[in-house]
C-alpha cells in the first residue's frame, strides 16, 4: 500500500488497517512455520506496510494534538 493512500484515511481507518495488516502478517508467519508459504517476500512487504501505516498513524495523532 502506498503512503499517499494511507494519508487520505482518517485515524480510525488507519487503526483498522494496522489491525488487518497484523492479522495478515500473523497468517503469513503461520504459513511459513507449516511450510505452506511459497512466496517469502510477502512477509517483508507486510512488515513494511505495517511500519508505514503505524508511522502515518503516529503523524496524524501528533498533528491532532
From TrEMBL:
Alphabetically list the UniProt keywords.
Answer: Ribonucleoprotein, Ribosomal protein
Any single Gene Ontology cellular-component annotation: ribosome
Q: Which InterPro entries match?
A: Ribosomal_protein_uL29 (IPR050063), Ribosomal_uL29 (IPR001854), Ribosomal_uL29_CS (IPR018254), Ribosomal_uL29_sf (IPR036049)
Q: Name one Pfam family in it.
A: Ribosomal_L29
> Ribosomal protein: present as a keyword of the record?
yes
Record flagged with keyword Ion transport:
no
| Superkingdom field | Bacteria
Family the entry assigns: Belongs to the universal ribosomal protein uL29 family.
Q: Which PANTHER family match?
A: 60S RIBOSOMAL PROTEIN L35/50S RIBOSOMAL PROTEIN L29 (PTHR10916), LARGE RIBOSOMAL SUBUNIT PROTEIN UL29C (PTHR10916:SF0)
Question: What is the protein name stated in its UniProt record?
Answer: Large ribosomal subunit protein uL29
Species annotation:
Rubrivivax benzoatilyticus
